[in-house]
Amino acid sequence: MYPSTLLFIDGQWSKAVDGADLPVINPATEETIGSVARAGVKDLDRALEAARKGFRVWKSTSAFDRYKVLRKAAQNLRDRADAIGPIMTMEQGKPVIEAKMETLACADVIDWFAEEARRTYGRIIPGRAENVHQLVIREPVGPVAAFSPWNFPINQAVRKISAALAAGCSIILKGPEETPASCAALVQCYVDAGVPAGVVNLVYGVPAEISEYLIASPIIKKISFTGSTAVGKHLAALAGRHMKRATMELGGHAPVIVFDDADIGRAATMMAGSKYRNAGQVCVSPTRFLVHEKVFNEFVDSFVGHARSVKVGNGLDSGVVMGPLAHDRRIAAMMDLTADAIKSGAEIRTGGERIGNKGYFFEPTVMTNVPKTARLMNEEPFGPIALMQPFSTMEEAVEEANRLPYGLASYAFTTSEKRASQLASQIETGMLTINHLGLALPEVPFGGIKDSGYGSEGGIEAMEPYLVSKFVSQMSL
């Protein structure tokens, strides 16, 4: 059974003060399966005061004790993965095996930040005089406001919560209204691990209302946002207006460069699996496939074969590889982008249509001859559409890879070490993986450049925005 979701404020699950809520829709059936409490200003004020109080407690908790709580939260999440997986599938749509894998992988993320909690080292700087001692002390920045998306209801939230808690910060998380229950289940894992009241708070509601209210509050010292570039720019401007630190993980339009010396079958298999994971609703999803003209037809044929073999359906059904899009807005977007590409002269090699009229299902799609003027070549599709373009020289491929203002993730396949090294220096991106899928591990940076944002949600870099450096210089008298 799908659980309806409440707000979590100051250690208690509760309804909104005014009793308002929002419906939760199963994207595979279009049925209302539950509700989520909709926070108003009074609820946000409660959350802010709770975060202020919780911060005083948590910043005084030793790094070793924070580590122990986080490790317990990770184990709680592992123990509950089988129960959380179907809930995520019902509200988000992805196959239940992917939902369980996401949940288990997030336990590893908590473990990683738990270890980092014990390594927030300061340093001693040698003084210029014998009796001067110079210290750099690392302290938590303060209460955090974080905003998490619906495409990975746990994976995105867990990075924000864990980094904040590891550093000693309290947090108010604005969870995804489309996928609230799995995010709430994550928060419960921290609560049951012993996180004090007020340290973690979870609210839902109208995103613009919540973000503008929380960011403007003097209680909040840092924000973290994952979502579209347009919204991210707006929130970054709000943060700048109030002198708040910000981490922005925004949209992408990932290029894939396949050279003629690559293992074409392996590259096509790997990239098709990555493209249609979560129905393409992934910020690092490969989208523009730039394939050397000598192997273009071979790669496209192989990729199309994989696309046609993808079993699409309800994520709870056995054997389903790709579930529905998350909501009706994504179906409309896919149809509009596809129609524009066809009008511009693109050729559909497979897919391009909605599947049935019940549920938000869209065919795994491959297009060729898509002109650069088409919207699909310039706007993030955030859906199961792959665009194939041939190239003749490396310079041509690099130019196209760097053409857009996005710079989140990039992919390449080549057996040439020299070429791989050149790509590493020439591709304008926050992340580049060559000959394999090496992104999004807990211990590696995760973030973009240009319009794809700034800061990192992974690796040791993820801790930095949650910490401030205090310099203390003392002369012994």
Please supply descriptive tags for the structure shown above.
2 domains; Aldehyde Dehydrogenase, Chain A, domain 1; 477 residues; 6-stranded mixed β-sheet; single chain; globular; Aldehyde Dehydrogenase, Chain A, domain 2; alpha/beta; 7-stranded mixed β-sheet; 21% strand
- Which structural class best describes the helix and strand composition? alpha/beta
Spatial gap, N to C terminus = 69 Å
* Strand residue percentage: 15-25%
Major sheet: size, sense and barrel closure? 7 strands, mixed
Spatial order of strands in the largest sheet:
14-15-16-13-12-17-18
CATH architecture field of the largest domain: 3-Layer(aba) Sandwich
User: How is the CATH topology of the largest domain named?
Assistant: Aldehyde Dehydrogenase, Chain A, domain 1
Low-confidence stretches: none
Domain count, please report it: 2
Tertiary shape: globular
Helix content: 25-40%
Map the helices and strands.
Blueprint: E1 7-9, E2 12-14, E3 21-26, E4 31-37, H1 41-58, H2 63-79, H3 81-92, H4 96-117, E5 123-126, E6 132-140, E7 144-147, H5 155-167, E8 171-174, H6 180-193, E9 200-203, H7 207-216, E10 222-226, H8 229-241, E11 245-249, E12 254-258, H9 264-275, E13 286-292, H10 296-309, H11 328-343, E14 347-350, E15 365-368, E16 385-391, H12 394-401, E17 409-413, H13 417-426, E18 431-434, E19 453-454, E20 467-475
Parallel strand pairs: 7-8, 7-10, 8-9, 10-11, 12-13, 12-17, 13-16, 15-16, 17-18
Antiparallel strand pairs: 1-2, 3-4, 5-6, 6-20, 11-19, 14-15
Helix pairs in contact: 2-4, 2-5, 2-6, 3-4, 3-6, 4-5, 9-10
